Structure formats: C-alpha cells, structure tokens
Amino acid sequence: MSRTLTHWVLPLSVVVALLLGLLPLPPMLQPLRPYWLALVLAYWMIEEPDRVGLGVVFLVGLVADLAFGTLLGEQALRLVVMGFILQRFRARLRFFPISQQALAIGGLLFNDRIVAAAIHLALGLKALPAMFWLAPVAGMVLWPLVFLTLDAARYGRWRRG
Q1: pLDDT tens profile 100-123
Q2: 4 lies in a domain?
Q3: Which of 10, 31, 42, 124 has the fewest other C-beta atoms within 10 Å?
Q4: What burial class does residue 57 get, using C-beta atoms within 10 Å of its C-beta: 0-12 exposed, 13-18 middle, 19+ buried?
Q5: TM spans, by residue (predicted)?
Q6: What 3-state DSSP class applies to 155?
Q7: Which domain holds residue 52?
C-alpha cells in the first residue's frame, strides 16, 4: 500500500488558514469564527510531529500576529501553549476516534480562549465579549471536516476518484 505524501500541503494549508482568519465576516457571525490556524496546526502536530513542532508553531503565530494586526507575540504564545499540550498528549489523541478528537480539540480551543482572556486582562485591555467563548464550539464541530480534508490532501486521495 503506497501513499504519496505531498509536501506542499503543509504550507498551503497554513496560508489558507491565515486567509480564512482574515476573511471578513458579518458582525453577527464574527464570534463564531473558528481559530482556523489552531485547527490546521493541531492537525499537523498530531500527524506530522517531526515536521511541525513548537518552533514552527511559534513562527506561524508571529506571522499571524503580523497579518491580523494583533499584539506581537499574542497568537504565538497562544499557539505554543496549545502545541505544548498537543505534544504532551499526542500519543493518546492520535488514536482517539474522530468524535473524541473533536472533543479534545474543543477543550484545547477553549483553553486558548482562556489564555487570550488572561493576556487581555494582564495588559489591561478591554474585556472580551461573552460571545467570544462560542468560537471553540465552532472549531470543535469543524474538526472532523478539517481533519478529513487535510488527511485526504496529505495523501493525495482526491486524485483517485
């Protein structure tokens, strides 16, 4: 059983996640925007830990800070915290059914929101709205789609029709 690993999928998926994060949404849908970058990097940290580690996650977070115009280092810190937890539990998480993975990813995304709120609180920035806490639910619901799409692209399954 030979699988052709496509090396371009990783950088392309990160760029697409960045673009999805920059995509304008109506104000009503804005709180539901999943943290696309975290979902994509979580996939790569679970499936390709030799290619995507904490250093890559930190650099991508810095690029995201520059692209989104957020405080320099905020997303980098948030993603490194998520990445550290993922590295710690990767061996278990990798073999969970996709529904249980979605729950674990939802927990990680909720933890990310706690880290973001702590950063805002520590810096004396305005409090985040209550709707801010809905995005982890959207990310959890989208995890199976993200996982299966990246898995298919990674192994070139879309070509086999």
Answers
A1: 999 999 999 999 999 999 999 999
A2: no
A3: 124
A4: buried
A5: 55-81, 102-124, 130-150
A6: coil
A7: 9-21+31-156
Distance CA 88, CA 9 (A): 25
Overall domain count for the chain? 1
- Angle at the Cα of 114 from the Cα atoms of 134 and 18, rounded to 5 degrees: 65
Is the pLDDT at 93 greater than 90, yes or no? yes
Task: Output the pLDDT for position 158.
Answer: 59
Task: Examine residue 134 and state whether it is found in any structural domain, yes or no.
Answer: yes
What's this model's pTM, rounded to 2 decimal places? 0.91
Return the residue matching tokens 């995507």.
52
| Count, residues in the chain | 161
Band (pLDDT 50/70/90 cuts) for residue 73 is very high
Q: Give CA–CA dist 103/88, Å, rounded.
A: 17
CB-based contact 86:46 (threshold 8 Å): yes
Does 161 fall in a domain?
no
The reported pLDDT for the residue numbered 125 is 87
